[in-house]
Write a structure and sequence with these properties.
With 406 residues, the protein is an alpha+beta fold. It has 3 domains: 1-88, Helix Hairpins (Orthogonal Bundle); 159-292, Heat shock protein DnaJ, cysteine-rich domain (Chaperone, DNAj Protein, Chain A); 295-406, Sandwich (HSP40/DNAj peptide-binding domain). The chain has helices spanning 3-8, 11-15, 23-37, 46-62, 65-78, 105-117, 128-136, 141-151, 167-172, 313-318, 375-387, 394-405; strands at 159-165, 174-185, 201-202, 211-216, 219-224, 233-234, 247-258, 267-270, 286-292, 299-301, 304-311, 320-326, 329-335, 344-347, 361-367. The strands form 6 sheets. It has a 4-stranded mixed β-sheet. It has a 3-stranded mixed β-sheet with strand order 1-9-8. A hairpin with a 2-residue loop joins β4 (211-216) and β5 (219-224). α3 packs antiparallel against α4. The chain is elongated.
């Protein structure tokens, strides 16, 4: 989307909505027009196709609050757009040459600023680039900033990779080697793009700025230099390895420390471990997506580890002391007499490391019922049953009796 589009095109008119229309009204108008004008409903109708494109372009701008604000600011600055911007100035904007000859509005605003602020040692308005910079990403001063960015240091790309860890490694932390492919400075030309023994030279078209200016109508536009593709440098004899780009795909192995307590699916950012920067710029960041394998014994809830331990009926009834495993050793756990199956006991500080304090180990005890009994075991259980004649489910029994009596 060019600056000229913002000034000359009436997006509100294209959708048939007032300038104060809310987002819902804009969306409703777009859906109605898009349905009516869609090329599938109007095969071969070039006028409908053109209108469909205009409506889509208008909706793209007006449905985005930021872009809509920029568009509204531009129209307030230059008038209602198109001919309306010139309506108050027959023959063109003030200062236009005979016959409406084009001129650079930056000169107009710059001169006005200089006249207004010369006594204060300032340029006042600071030129058209300062005014348009906040609206359209910058013309004038914005273009100068882009040219400096194009020819100056460039930050390296961010890189993402994956690492699969065992359960223990994720909880306790581990240092792992990661082998990856990513863009990097060409080792043959050291990122210059020029064949060894030669060097790039300043672009003669843009004089190293990386941008060129052209006049169109009443405006001067800046665009990336086509001769050097915006870099400000020209390579006459390209490097045979990277074909002049200065970048090659490289395989590298780096050692990464995965902190303790990471979770499955967690994305870890490692600053400066991504692709190397260009022209002396800083390296990008490396993002490691962690996948954690299941454990044969332990589960995890946040920073707490979970463990299920079977116990016998005598252990549950009489109480016992169990020795249970942890990820870094063992721990003794007292089971009180009369413990019910499914009760969870907490061992503090023996879970996963967390922020401030480690999580806990949550041990759930379950009474193990043997599938088969020996004759001696059966006799012992039957004797126990005779001794334990107390009803363990009195409420259920009462409900059954009440139902039978009814």
């Amino acid at each position: 989307m060019s600056t000229r589009d913002f000034i000359e095109k009436d997006y509100y008119g294209a959708l048939g909505v007032p300038q104060d229309a809310d987002a819902a009204a804009i969306k409703k108008a777009y859906r109605k027009l898009a349905t009516e004008l869609h090329p599938d409903k109007n095969p071969g109708n070039t006028e409908a196709e053109a209108r469909f494109k205009d409506v889509s372009e208008a909706y793209d701008v007006l449905s985005d609050p930021k872009r809509r604000g920029e568009y509204d600011d531009a129209r307030r600055l230059f008038g209602a757009g198109g001919a309306g911007a010139r309506a108050g100035f027959p023959g063109g904007f003030p200062g236009a040459g005979p016959g409406g000859q084009p001129f650079d509005l930056g000169d107009l605003f710059g001169a006005a600023g200089a006249g207004a602020g010369a006594g204060a040692g300032a340029r006042g308005a600071g030129g058209l680039g300062d005014i348009l910079g906040g609206l359209f990403g910058g013309a004038g001063g914005g273009a100068r900033a882009r040219s400096q960015a194009a020819s100056g240091p460039a930050r390296g790309q961010d890189v993402e990779t994956e690492a699969t860890l065992s359960f223990d490694e994720a909880v306790l932390g581990v240092t792992v080697p990661l082998r990856m492919q990513s863009p990097g400075s060409c080792p043959t030309c050291a990122g210059s793009g020029a064949k060894p023994g030669t060097s790039p030279h300043t672009c003669p078209v843009c004089q190293g700025a990386g941008v060129t200016s052209r006049s169109q109508g009443a405006f001067a536009f800046s665009e990336p230099c086509r001769n050097c593709r915006g870099s400000g440098q020209v390579v006459d004899d390209p490097c045979p390895t990277c074909a002049g780009s200065g970048i090659t795909s490289q395989t590298r192995t780096i050692t990464v420390r995965i902190p303790s307590g990471v979770k499955d699916g967690q994305r870890i950012r490692l600053p400066g471990k991504g692709a190397p920067g260009r022209r002396g710029g800083p390296a990008g960041d490396l993002f490691v997506v962690v996948h954690v394998s299941d454990h044969s014994l332990f589960g995890r809830k946040g920073d707490d580890l979970t463990l299920t331990v079977p116990i016998t009926f005598p252990e549950a009834a009489l109480g016992t002391t169990l020795t249970v495993p942890t990820l870094d050793g063992t721990v003794s756990l007292k089971v009180p007499a009369g413990t019910a199956s499914g009760r969870t006991l907490r061992v503090r500080g023996r879970g996963a490391p967390g922020k401030g304090r480690a999580g806990d180990l949550l041990v759930t005890v379950e009474i193990a019922v043997p599938a088969r009994l020996t004759p001696a075991q059966r006799k012992a259980v039957e004797s126990l049953a005779e001794e334990m004649h107390e009803d363990p489910r009195p409420q259920i029994t009462a409900a059954v009796r009440a139902g039978g009596e009814g």
